[in-house]
Structures are given as structure tokens and as C-alpha cells.
Amino acid sequence: MRRLAGVEDEEKWLAEGIAGIQHNAFFMHRALDANNLREVLKYSALMLSELRTSKLSPQKYYDLYMRAFDELRQLEVFFKDESRHGLPVVDLYELVQHAGNILPRMYLLCTVGSVYIKSKQAPSKDVLKDLVEMCRGVQHPIRGLFLRSYLAQVSRDKLPEIGSEYEGDANTVMDAVEFVLQNFTEMNKLWVRIQHQGPGTVREKQEKERNELRDLVGKNLHVLGQIEGVDLEMYKETVLPRVLEQVVNCKDELAQYYLMECIIQVFPDEYHLQTLETLLAACTQLMPTVDTKIVLTQLMDRLSNYAASSPDVLHEFLQVEAFAKLSNAIGKVIDTQIEMPIVGAMTLFVSLLTFTLRVHPDRLDYVDQILGACVVKLSSVPKLEDARAMKQVVALLSAPLEKYNDIVTALTLSNYPRVMDHLDDGTNKVMAMLIIQSIMKNNSCISTADKVEVLFELIKGLIKDLDGTDTEELDEEDFQEEQNSVARLIHMLDNEEPEEMLKIICVVRKHLMTGGTRRLPFTVPPLVFSALRLVRQLDSQGGDITGEEVSATPRKIFQILNQTIEVLSSVPCPELALRLYLQCAEAASDCDLEPAAYEFFTQAFILYEEEIADSKAQVTAIHLIIGTLQRINVFGVENRDTLTHKATGYSARLLKKPDQCRAVYACSHLFWVDDIDGIKDGERALLCLRRALRIANAAQQMANATRGSSGPVTLFVEILNKYIYFYEKGNPHITPSDIQSLIELINTEMQSDDNGNRRIHSDPFFTSTLRYIRFQKQKGGVIGDKYDLIKL
Amino acid sequence: MVLVLALGDLHVPHRAADLPPKFKSMLVPGKIQHIICTGNLCIKEIHDYLKTICPDLHIVRGEFDEDARYPDTKTLTIGQFKLGLCHGHQVIPWGDLDSLAMLQRQLDVDILVTGHTHQFTAYKHEGGVVINPGSATGACSSINQDVNPSFVLMDIDGLRVVVYVYELIDGEVKVDKIDFKKASTSTSAP
């Protein structure tokens, strides 16, 4: 059983090889110093024999090669100087061919050849041709590759390129190209052969070796790219076809992939553009295992950058119909490589889209076309489950969003929603969130009902439960974030034209109503406020345009609002609904629509009575009711009476006495509105204050009874402030003595409790209230006179 | 010099999508020592955002706030000043200066900050100063039809406070300032 070479073995062989080279080099140098040609040739051949080894891996062989290379440089100097060895170069060229083994013979020949070309005693092309053909004698892959690499190195500055000293009638650029192409072809053949040697167990090792060698082959392409005089014409007619021929025919996966990459990197982008068809055709002819996607992606990336480099370049793209060609090639690749997983196809589409967005951003039809091809491909699989493929589709859909900051543009792509349909529910929502974020980031405004319809179709994963989803599974925080995003989105839908705006509102409403009870508390409020904004806009514009059939009227909108808020009862969220009803009531009042306003108040009151049981919630709710009602001036006497009566009744029936007290004195403002036309029923306002006082007294007595001491005097001081408020406003039913009595009452309460102990020394609130009275006294005028009547 | 940001009534996402970009770029973290917020954010995201501007956040409950745990009123001392904070829907009639003055006396503060009307005001009355920073997002209000986004920055320095009001009018940020001086260190003068 043959033991595989270990690292230690290789180190040993390398060391031996190096030693061999050094040993012979020593004698060679002695011969060089003595100008002894025979000895020089003898020892140089011996030295070069070390390169005949087949035991070393490419990395190690390279080490050995470099040692020899350095020695050969000195040898070349010797060969060049005829005075030292006495032989004309033509004869020298003949002489070295007598070396025993072919490898040393060839290295010597190439070295002399270099001198020969420099001497210009023969046309460069002839010598080069001779050398490149004779190298055929070495068929061992590693040895052959390094030999030809040596040939390439020494010949590099001697190619008959344009402007070179070796150019002439007999030598042309074409000859240079021929030489390099031939060397390249032979090197590739050698390189590919490595795979076919040895049993399968060593295959992995060989692949590694192949990768280490690949730059030797690729270098030739670099040279081709640098030769002066290789223009587009020559590239198109000769260079590319020959290179591609070798690439395709070698039928080697590693070589094809590497060389295609090389071609794309090495040659100028304008060349690629002009030879696009040829390049793409080659791509479709590669071995099925080659990752053509990456090759095509690299090509498209380079072309994208090229397009971005200058605007003049763009017409070239149009002229060669770049998009059509790329699109067709990609289609062909996807169709022929049926085993290609879906993620591969998607990656290709993403690359093509990136290219299109950079090169033809204005061609929405191209973008839509790509999306269409994507839809076709996605339809061919029953269900998309590969997470990576999903990611690519998301990238595909995100690209137009990022490019066209205006979401409206993406909305016009007919295939966009179709692609989204193929996403699984989770990814669909991710995409929907991305769409909303894009709108928010760019401050986009979507202004027609049609576009809103398309948009809400796209984000339907957030709007409602899609088949198969279970909203219970979703993390609470994530769900709230989703719904809040939808809520924010609603404010980006706007049109100054009321008719269109109403249409938008109706479209949104239609979609939101499918959301289910979990979503409504988030989505209904922004819809309501959006509608209220429209109402106020209509109101300020000056009412109905008589004679015209308009559907956008406040009355109509309030009907819609009523129906919308009603839906919240299914959740249920009565507190929110109550607040919304009150907002609508105030808006209706401002529009002079008494019945609508009354209806909204009725709904609010019903909710208060039937649905809001929590005491704290009741306190807030009643204050909102009182506060709103206080501002409303549309009601006739009867309606107003009914509502205020109800409000005061609720206030008195709150659970805790202090809450009752405060709500009741708040009601006093229902009977006194400070406007010019405002109601000013001083008597009923005072009645409220007196009632509040009674409640405050009762509260004190309760505190005495239950705790043995009085409560704080805050409530009394608050009521005192209210007395002062109305007194100052001119309520005729409030007298200075009323105020004085109240002040006395407070003093009494503060001074002692049941046991006659001095309790509260001072109350800052009371103190500052008295201070206020004194301040007003000093004012002079009507106010001053009024306050003067109050004796402290 | 202590900088206090006063703002509120953002109503996100009920009535507005977000703060105006021009305001957001001005509200840089680390420049402000305290934030007092009149409420109606309405959602936690806004709370978190405000916290990034300044961790010392004081907030009271508005009637639309998602978090019901915010207090109805709050008082705090900054430098020589006692500040009071209340959303204002509890004080009826809404926006009435005299009724707000009563609340100020009750809380025993030099500066009372309230909201609810979405209209910037800064009044000096017998008992002190009442400031309403308006709505930071320009959210619509039933009380005030024409709302420009606004917020207030107070510079408290010794016995003096300079109130800067920032308003977004027709796309431009306009600044105005008002000076207030306190008479002495004790708040309840006999």
C-alpha cells in the first residue's frame, strides 16, 4: 500500500532539492567566473534537473522554482555577454539543445531565447513561436506549467507590441497575441489535466493544488489585457473567441469558473458591452456544475459600475440592447439548469434588477418585466419554503423601494403584488413593514384612492389575518409595533380635493374593518381623526355647494364616523369609543349640525352608563363629557338642558365624595360660558357650587366619623376659588358675604378638630388664594372695587 | 444654566405620524437636562424616543395615553423654581387661564406647564407663569383649528427663566423668547 506523502516528507524533499540547486549553483558560479562555457552549461543543467522532481506540491515546487529562477537571471547575464563565452547567440541557441533531459534543456533554451530576441538577430515572433512549440515536450502538468510560466516571464518585455522595439514588418501585435494565446491554451490544458490524474481519494488534494496553480494560467489573460495594440476589433475577432473556445472545450468546472471570472475582471467594460452576446452565449455553454450565477452577477456588477462612471456611456447600453441580452441569457440559464434551486434563480433576478435600476432607472417596464419573470419562476414551485430564497425575494422587492424614494412608483409595477403573493405570511408582513417604513422615511404622500387600494392590498398581511395565520402566535410587542405602523401610515394618505379624500377614507375604512377586534383599537382612531380633519376642512371652505351633487359633506362623513366608532363595541373598548364620540360631537357642533352632535353625545352617555364601571375611568370620562359639553353652543335649550342635567347627575353619583365634589363644581361651568353669546345662568352655576359645598361638608363628616379627624381643607379651598372665579366674572348671585363665610369656614376647619386641638397651621393653597384676593384689591378700577367689598 | 424641554400632545399615531423632521434633528441627545411632558404621546415608542433625548423624563397622563399609569399631576424642583405639570383636560373650562391659575395655587408652583389645547401660550399672572408648549407634532385639536407644531425650551438660571418657543410655520422653524424673573426664593409670599 502506497503511503500518501506527509508534510514532513515534502519538507525533506524540498530541502534536498534546494540543497541540490545550491550545490550545483556553486559550481556554476565558479565556472561563470572562469567564463568556462562548457562547465557553465554542465552545472546549470544539473541544477535545473532538480526541477524534474514530481514529489512536490505546487507550493513547494514554487519555492524550488524561485531558487532556480534567481540563478537563471545570472546565467542570462553571462549568455548576453558574448565576450565572456565567445559564442554568437545563434550558436548558443543551438548548443543548449544538446542538454540531456528535456526540462533543463527547455529552461536553458528559453533563457538563451531571451538573449536571442534582445540581440534582434532573429524576429521576435520566430523565436517565440519556436519556444512555445518546443515546450510541448514537457507534458507533466506542474513542471509544464512552471516552465511555460518561465517562458511567459522572460518573454513579457519582448513581445512585439505596438511601440515596442521588437515591432516591425515581420512582427506585429497579432504575433504577440498569437504567442500568448498559444501559451495560455497549452497551460490550461496542462492545468485541467491535474484533475484526471490519481485515484479519487486524492481528488481533494488535487483540487487544492489546482487552486494554487490557477494564477499561473490566469496571468496570460492579464498579459493579453495589457498588450499595446489590442483594440476592440482584435479582442472581438481573435482574443475573446480563442479564449472562450478553450474555456468551453476544456469542459472543466474549476477552469471554466476561474477563467470566466478572469475575463470579466481583466478586460475593459466597454469591450464586455460590445461582446455581450458572445460572452453570454459562452455562459450558457458552461458545465452545469459551474456557478454561472456568480459569473453573471459579476458581469452585471461591472457593467453597472461602468454605467455609473459617466452619463455618456448610457447610450452604448441601449445600442447593444444590453438589458434584453442579459435578460434572455438569465432566462436561458434558469431554464436549462433545472436542478438549480429556487434561491439561485432569485439571486440572478436580484442581480439583474440591481443592474437595471442602476443603468435604466427610468425603464419601469424593464423592472416590471423582471418581476414578471420572477412570478413565473415562483409559480413553478408549489410553495416557497427556502428561507434564503425568501430573503432574495425580499431583496428583490426592496430594491425598487430604495431606488425610487417615491412608493407611488413601486405601486405602478403590475407584477409587484404578484411577487408578494408568493411570500409566506411571515415574510409578507416583513415586506409590508418595509414598505411602510419606506413611505415614512421619505415622507411620501399617497394621494389617490386607487393607489391607496393597491397599497392596502400589498400590506394586507398587516391589515387582517391571512388564511392560516394565527394572531395569537405573534409576540405582543411586535403586533403593537405593526399596528402602530399601519396607524401612522394612515396619516400619509392625503388629498386636498375633498371628494378624493373621502374616497380614500372609504377605501381605508373598508380594509380596516376586516382587521378583527385585536386590530381595531389601533387603526380606528387615526381613521376617525383623518375624517375629522376633512370635516373641518370642508367646514372652513364654506359649506355645501348648492346645486352640485357632492358626496363629501360633513353630514355624510359624520354618518360614516358613527358607523365606524360603533364597530369598537365589538372589541370592546368603551373608553376609547367615548373619547372619539366626544371629538365628533364637538366637530358636529362646529359645523352647526345639532342632531348629529346630540346623537354623538347620546352614544357617549350610553357608553358611560353601561360600559364604564371603573371609578377612575368614570372620573376621567365625566370630566371629558363636561369639558366638551361646556364648549358646545349648537344645542337648543331643551337638548342642552337634557344633557347638562344628565352630566350633573353622573357627577353627583361618582363613587368617592371628593370626586363627586370636583365633578359637580366643574358642572358649574356648564351654566356659565365666557363668550359674548355664551350662556350665563348665574343661579344654576351657584347651585352647583352649593351642592359641591354640601358634598365637601359631608366628606369632612365622613372623615371625622371614620378616622376621628377631619380631612384636608383642599376641597373647600377649591370651591372658594370657584366662588371667586364667578364673582369676578360678574355672577350677580354670588355676594361678598358668601365668600367671606366660606373663608371663615375654612379657617374654622383649619384651626381645630373635635378635640379642640390645633391641627393645620397653614395651607399653602388657602394662603395663596387669600394672597390673590389681596392682589386683586390693589388693582383698582372695577376689579379693585369688587374685591374691596370682600372683608378679610 | 439648566435646559428643560417642555412638549406634549404629540398624539402619535392617532393624529400624527411622527414629529416633524426639523424638530427631530434639533432634539439631540445630551443637550437637555430635563424633559417635562404634558401627555398624550400616545404610545410607548414615543416614550422611549423621549428617553433617548434625556433620561430625566417627567410625564403626566393625557386622556389618550396608552399607559394609564402616568400620574394626573406632578411637581418637581429645578434650581430655584418649582414646576407643576398637568395635561389640562382635568381643568374645566379647557384653556381657561383663571382656572389654570387655581391649579397653580393648588400645586404651589412657580411655573405650571399644561397642554390639551394644542396652542402655545405663556402667561404671567399673579401666582406665577403658565406655559403651554402646544403640540409638538401639530396634531389637530377640537379646541384649536390652526395648529403649528411647537415645543418649548426653558433655560433656568438662578431666579430667571428664559422661555424659548420653537414653532414650525410653513416649513421653517421660528424661535421666540420670553423672560420671567422670580421675586425671591420663597414661593408663598405672605
UniProtKB/TrEMBL annotation, chain A:
Family recorded in the similarity comment: Belongs to the VPS35 family.
Gene Ontology cellular-component annotations: cytosol; endosome membrane; Golgi apparatus; retromer, cargo-selective complex
Function: Plays a role in vesicular protein sorting.
Domain of life of the organism encoding this protein: Eukaryota
Species: Brassica campestris
Gene Ontology biological process terms in this record: protein transport; retrograde transport, endosome to Golgi
Membrane topology: Peripheral membrane protein
Short name of any one Pfam family annotated for the protein: Vps35
Localization, UniProt: Cytoplasm; Endosome membrane; Golgi apparatus, trans-Golgi network membrane; Prevacuolar compartment membrane
Main localization of the protein described in the UniProt heading: cytoplasm
UniProt KW keywords: Cytoplasm, Endosome, Golgi apparatus, Membrane, Protein transport, Transport
Protein name: Vacuolar protein sorting-associated protein 35
UniProtKB/TrEMBL annotation, chain B:
Residue span(s) of domain Calcineurin-like phosphoesterase: 4-157
Coiled-coil ranges (or none): none
Any one Pfam family match given in the protein's UniProt record, by short name: Metallophos_2
InterPro entries assigned to the protein according to its UniProt record, in alphabetical order: Calcineurin-like_PHP_lpxH, Metallo-depent_PP-like, Phosphodiesterase_MJ0936/Vps29, Vps29
Keyword DNA repair (UniProt): no
Entries under Gene3D superfamilies matching the protein: 3.60.21.10
Keywords carried by this UniProt record: Protein transport, Transport
Domain of life: Eukaryota
A GO BP entry: intracellular protein transport
Transmembrane intervals: none
GO cellular component: cytosol; endosome; retromer complex
Similarity comment: family membership: Belongs to the VPS29 family.
This protein's name: Vacuolar protein sorting-associated protein 29
Organism whose genome encodes this protein: Brassica campestris
